Amino acid sequence: MGLKSDEFQYVVENYNPSKKRQNGEYELKRTSDYETYKQSSEQLVKKLTYWKEVREQFTDLIEEEILPLEKR
Length: 72
Description:
Helix content is 65%, strand content 0%. By secondary structure, it is mostly helical. The chain is globular and about 35 Å long. The termini are far apart.
């Protein structure tokens, strides 16, 4: 996705499902790298829709994969 792991980890650790915007999301967006994403992705999205796609993917990942593990 072209994201820095430290910023993504911060968002994951501070994720609150009841909030629309997450703590650390701005920094994650600011440091995201569309060019890296473009080079490594098979299904490209336009730069204008890149952040929306990134947010949807990290939200799905956190809610479907990570949060269920924390509830164990």
